[in-house]
Design brief:
Layout (H helix, E strand, L loop, with lengths): L1 H10 L2 H23 L2 E10 L4 E12 L3 E3 L1 H11 L2 H19 L9 E5 L2 H5 L3 H12 L6 E6 L7 H12 L4 E7 L6 H6 L4 E4 L1 H4 L6 H17 L2 E4 L5 H9 L4 E2 L8 E2 H8 L6
Bound molecules: ligand C2E and calcium ion (3 copies).
Length: 279
């Protein structure tokens, strides 16, 4: 039939076939990558307004031989829908703690906070708190240097349960950051219920600074809110000097973005900022 013919044609569309092949390769890569530990942690520096390095964010990359270095945009979604984000996230967390333990022995790196992205699916695991504490204990990493980045998707969860887990980890000095702030669903009352240390202004607002008046107003509102709630603020995606100047002039204390430093492999970060790379 004609309809069938059309379906057949669509099915064999070479572009779609290639996309499907890539998808299959990526899911296979994900499982294999977790099993064979074929992931790399990259790391992006965070600075205060005086230009001092104060911390870094861990960003995951997949190193598949056939595909080269693949960014999280291509596999985090798949990891989320397949549930593989739970073992993958556990691996990233453990590896992040290993990095922190190593940094503790380097005077130049020992004071840095290392932030890692945590999926709401990880947080939802009944043993999440125990897993984080086990990773810290196993590696000897300092809990007060570990920062967990959550997104506003946590507000779609049982907020009391989330807050309970956060408080349990807070009691061990682990801190929390609310990532991509302003893009999702959060109300002032919810914000107050979570023991957060930090808000991260999403890049979508920073991008249009300083020309766009709406973006400027939103950034100001976030900075005001953070002051009220006594939270640190990091602006992410700072790409231009003009964006930086606006943020600094408006009281944003911490900056992250290509202008200041791109994500690089952990080893490169350690070479650039650690004692080994200095005279
Ligand atoms: P995110 O947490 O918002 O991370 C910031 C993203 O912005 C990173 O993209 C980073 O490379 C990029 N970025 C930083 N500065 C700039 C800039 O100045 N300009 C532009 N255009 N981009 C900038 P990346 O590494 O591709 O990560 C994308 C997202 O994947 C992350 O967004 C995060 O949501 C997720 N992700 C990355 N690693 C992990 C992980 O280990 N676990 C989980 N659950 N998610 C992760
Ligand atoms: Ca993040
Ligand atoms: Ca972010
Ligand atoms: Ca983002």
């Amino acid at each position: 039939a004609k309809a069938e013919g059309r379906n057949t044609v669509r099915f064999f569309d070479p572009g779609m076939q290639a996309a499907a092949d890539r998808q299959i390769a990526l899911e296979h890569d994900l499982r294999e990558g977790i099993r064979r530990q074929r992931f790399e942690l990259h790391c992006q520096p965070q600075f205060d307004v005086a230009g001092r390095l104060v911390g870094a964010e861990v960003l995951l990359r997949s190193n598949h031989t056939g595909l080269g270095l693949v960014g999280p945009a291509e596999f985090i979604g798949l990891a989320e829908t397949s549930g593989l984000i739970v073992p993958l996230g556990a691996m990233v967390l453990l590896e992040t703690c290993r990095v922190l333990a190593r940094w503790a022995r380097d005077p130049r790196l020992a004071c840095l906070t290392l932030a890692v992205n945590v999926s709401v699916q990880q947080l939802r695991q009944p043993d999440f708190v125990e897993r984080v504490l086990a990773a810290l204990l196993e590696t000897g990493a300092a809990p007060d240097k570990l920062r967990l980045e959550l997104t506003e998707s946590v507000f779609a969860e049982d907020v009391e349960a989330v807050a309970g887990k956060m408080h349990a980890l807070r009691a061990h000095a682990v801190s929390f950051s609310l990532d991509d702030f302003g893009t999702g669903y959060s109300s002032l009352s919810y914000l107050k219920r979570l023991p957060l240390a930090e808000l991260k202004i999403d890049r979508s607002f920073v991008k249009d600074l300083p020309e766009d008046a709406n973006a400027g107003a939103i950034v100001d509102a976030i900075l005001g809110l953070a002051r009220t709630l006594n939270l640190q603020v990091v602006a992410e995606g700072v790409e231009t000097q003009a964006q930086r100047d606006f943020l600094v002039a408006h009281g944003c204390a911490l900056l992250q973005g290509y202008l200041l430093g791109r994500p690089v492999p952990i080893e490169a970060f350690e070479r650039d900022w650690g004692s080994a790379g200095q005279e």
